[in-house]
Design a protein that fits this description.
The protein is mainly alpha-helical and 295 residues long. Helix content is 80%, strand content 0%. Helix 4 runs parallel beside helix 5, helix 4 (105-117) packs antiparallel against helix 12 (268-292) and helix 5 packs antiparallel against helix 6. 26% of the residues are buried.
Length: 295
């Protein structure tokens, strides 16, 4: 276990630029922009004369939006991370060092796979919470300039941040697990084709979908099962409209209702199949490294 932790720490040190430095720069720029807009009085709103949700609900919806934005960054970042990490040590001869250590290729690749759902996910969740704190101060300033907008008190805001933080972390974990087969696909290709894995990861399924489409134009009755499956498997998760409705109306318990919503919307059978596919790809990639890539 100690060796696995050390390997995960190694992944953080080698890829902290994409998951620590770049998000920190983005958060700083975004925070400075919205704070300047609020301080200079440009963050004004003209709201219709309709009943508005409570200040806590508005702030919770804001935090939820930050997690949605950062989840998109996390997914893109993990895609490029897995497309590179499974073959990165072959470019700088680090593979010679790691093969000389008493750690198997399976454990090395497992550490790379686990890093995405542990330390890298935790970093992005932390930046989402920091953005939530920044947006709270922005909401305070905006409420001072717009009497129709109320900001929650510090205690209420802290409670909302903790509750939505739990919801957001669960959402990030479920999202990464749901898209794990896609990450395993590009990671497995990188073991074979190195940097060509990114275009191949898109080109191969794209070619299959195109063949299905051309076949359907010929009047075949086979349909497009692979295209339909990929469209469903990599569709939105979960339904953001329901989440917004729960937060704004506070129906069914507010933030905690979102957890029940997410867990209820997960297709656990396909989640398990996807994770099994991921495990198989990692094992096959480790066997390829062990048998075909000599130290």
């Amino acid at each position: 276990m100690r060796a696995l932790v050390a390997l995960i720490k190694r992944e953080f040190l080698e890829h902290r630029g994409a998951f620590l430095y770049v998000p920190a720069i983005l958060l700083t720029l975004l925070g400075a922009t919205v704070l300047i807009a609020a301080v200079t009085g440009h963050a004004t709103f003209s709201l219709p004369p309709v009943p508005l949700p409570g200040p806590a609900a508005v702030y919770q919806a804001t935090i939820g939006g930050t997690f949605l934005l950062w989840s998109a960054y996390l997914l893109v970042g993990l895609f490029f991370y897995y497309a590179d990490s499974f073959s990165a040590d072959r470019r700088n001869n680090a593979l010679l060092f790691w093969k000389s250590m008493p750690q198997s290729d399976l454990k090395v690749l497992t550490s790379k796979a686990v890093s995405g759902i542990t330390i890298f996910l935790a970093l992005i969740a932390g930046f989402a919470l920091l953005m939530g704190v920044v947006l709270y101060f922005v909401l305070l300033m905006v409420s001072g300039q717009n009497p129709s907008i109320d900001a929650p008190g510090p205690i209420e805001a802290a409670a909302s941040l903790v509750q939505m933080g739990i919801v957001g972390v669960i959402y990030l974990v479920l999202t990464v697990l749901w898209y794990a087969p896609g990450f395993a696909w590009v990671a497995g290709l990188s073991t074979l084709f190195r940097r060509w894995s990114i275009p191949l990861a898109l080109l191969i399924p794209g070619a299959v979908v195109l063949l299905e489409y051309l076949n359907s134009l010929r009047g075949a009755d086979a349909g497009r099962p692979i295209a339909d499956f990929l469209d469903w498997r990599f569709g939105s998760f979960p339904d953001e409209a329901d989440a917004i409705a729960i937060l704004i109306t506070q129906v069914g318990g507010g933030p905690y209702a979102l957890i029940r919503l997410m867990l209820a919307r997960v297709d656990w059978l396909h989640m398990g199949i996807g994770l099994a596919f991921t495990v198989v790809i990692i094992y096959l990639a480790s066997e390829y490294r062990r048998r075909r890539i000599a130290a």
